[in-house]
Design goal:
Blueprint (H helix, E strand, L loop, with lengths): L2 H15 L7 E7 L3 H13 L4 E7 L1 H10 L10 H12 L3 E6 L11 H14 L1 H8 L5 E5 L3 H7 L5 H15 L7 H22 L3 E5 L5 E5 L7 E2 L2 E2 L5 E2 L8 E3 L6 E6 L4 E3 L2 E11 L2 E9 L1 H8 L8 E6 L5 H4 L7 H4 L5 E5 L14 H6 L8 E5 L6 E5 L5 E6 L2 E2 L4
Parallel strand pairs: 1-2, 1-3, 3-4
Antiparallel strand pairs: 5-6, 5-18, 6-11, 7-10, 8-9, 10-15, 11-13, 12-13, 13-14, 15-16, 16-17, 18-19, 19-20
This protein binds zinc ion (2 copies).
The site of one zinc ion has 4 residues, from β17.
Length: 411
């Protein structure tokens, strides 16, 4: 990506992504390979009036060394200072940018037990932080930059430098910074997503029935006061932000106990540096009662067994098969991109904001209304070119929502 485009990208993340306000602190979690981009974000944030820009540098190779060589007991601990770091900034109202760029196969030689224990310790320590972000109380934005290891996996046939360049241009296209005015391009994109949301929010489907030739045959009930969201979101103060760049999805939550049938994955899932591929779940009254996987079965099993809530689904997201990232035909091995190329569900925690006034309700009330809670929230892809989704209204009328992988909405 040339320097001009990179600067446009940084400005887009600061302005439209987290929509930084005068006097606000910005926290950036960045891989060390992303330093040039992260420095531009810092510059843009200060120019927009940020009070401070705090950067948490990540080195995945060091993380791997630790996973391979540290003593066993360390994986049940989460550093106190790191917990304090996130909690103090989230409580003071900071904005959070997270830069996603990982080697999809980084941890394939690591004992899955160690990874899952570390993940769980982190999720417990950062529960309040995650709760605030998932309730949109702080603005946050996840974006990506290429790293050589990631690019080599996506463009396996290319020499490293060319692979990185190819991944940069795929990312630029997906986040619309290859356009003359990315902020305007995003405004048009959000208006498009809104049409689909408006249809779904007006229809107020009681359930959705999914079917395709991979073997998915799943009924997903939706809670009575569910809301379809997409594009941008709002803090309680009414400040707009975009949580994922790219984003092509409209999403809501399932009724925790109202999912039944079989669901089959349509793309590999990169979970914490491990690939899980060709997997399926059998779901009964919301609970995942059986899972199968051709690759990464042990990791998948451990993920589902994280806690009680990780046996249930927490997100229902619709993405047309004919959409920009899907049309690129690139398998990114990175959920930020692959989930935006395909209809998906998430295992685990639901976004309380997907329920009318959900962000103001207590944990107990949310549970009563069918909102799933868990330490994890992991998207997995199920969309295909032949996916059919039929909506059933409260009156029992059946309305096509997806036909041949795409929205079948009356226009
Ligand atoms: Zn999603
Ligand atoms: Zn999700």
């Amino acid at each position: 990506m040339d320097s001009q485009m990179l600067e446009k990208y940084a400005r887009l993340v600061v302005k439209s992504g987290v929509n930084i306000q005068k006097g606000q602190t910005l926290v950036v979690a960045s891989p060390i390979e992303g330093a040039p981009f992260t420095r531009l974000i810092a510059e843009q944030a200060y120019q927009a009036g940020a009070r401070d820009v705090v950067i948490s540098w990540k080195d995945e190779i060091s993380a791997k060394i630790r996973f391979l060589q540290a003593p066993e007991e360390i994986f049940d601990e989460y550093p106190k200072w790191q917990k304090e770091f996130y909690l103090s900034y989230v409580r003071e109202g900071a904005a959070f940018v997270s830069i996603s760029a990982s080697d999809p196969e980084l941890l394939k030689d690591v004992d899955p037990g160690r990874i899952m224990r570390a993940q769980k310790a982190g999720n417990i320590a950062l529960e309040e932080y995650r709760e605030r972000l998932m309730s949109n109380r702080n603005p946050w934005c996840v974006v990506a930059v290429p790293t050589p290891a990631w690019a080599r996996k996506v463009f396996a046939g290319l020499p490293e430098a060319e692979a990185v360049e190819a991944l940069w241009s795929a990312i630029a296209k997906a986040v619309r910074v290859d356009t003359a005015d990315p902020v305007a391009a995003w405004a048009a994109h959000k208006a498009n997503l809104k049409k689909n949301m408006d249809f779904l929010n007006t229809a107020k489907f009681r359930s959705l029935h999914y079917r395709n030739s991979l073997g998915t045959d799943l009924t997903v009930e939706l809670p009575e006061d569910h809301l379809w969201l997409g594009g941008s979101e709002y803090t309680p103060e009414g400040l707009e932000f975009i949580a994922n760049m790219p984003t092509e999805e409209v999403f809501t939550l399932p009724r925790k106990n109202g999912v039944n049938g079989t669901v089959v994955s349509s793309k590999p899932l990169n979970y914490n540096g491990n690939l899980i591929d060709r997997f399926s779940f059998t779901v009964k009254d919301g609970r995942i009662v059986a899972s199968k996987a051709q690759t990464g079965g042990e990791i998948l099993q451990k993920l589902v067994e994280t806690d009680e809530g990780s046996h249930y689904l927490g997100e229902v997201a619709l993405v047309p098969h004919a959409s920009p990232i899907s049309d690129s035909n690139i398998l990114f091995y990175n959920t930020l991109f692959d989930e935006n190329a395909s209809c998906h569900f998430a295992i685990g925690k639901a976004y309380p904001v997907c329920l009318k006034e959900g962000e103001t309700k207590s944990k107990e009330e949310l549970a009563r209304l069918g909102v799933n809670d868990s330490l994890v929230h992991v998207d997995f892809m199920v969309g295909t070119a032949d996916l059919e989704i039929t909506g059933v209204t409260a009156e029992g009328a059946e309305i096509p929502v997806f036909r041949n992988g795409n929205f079948a909405l009356p226009r």
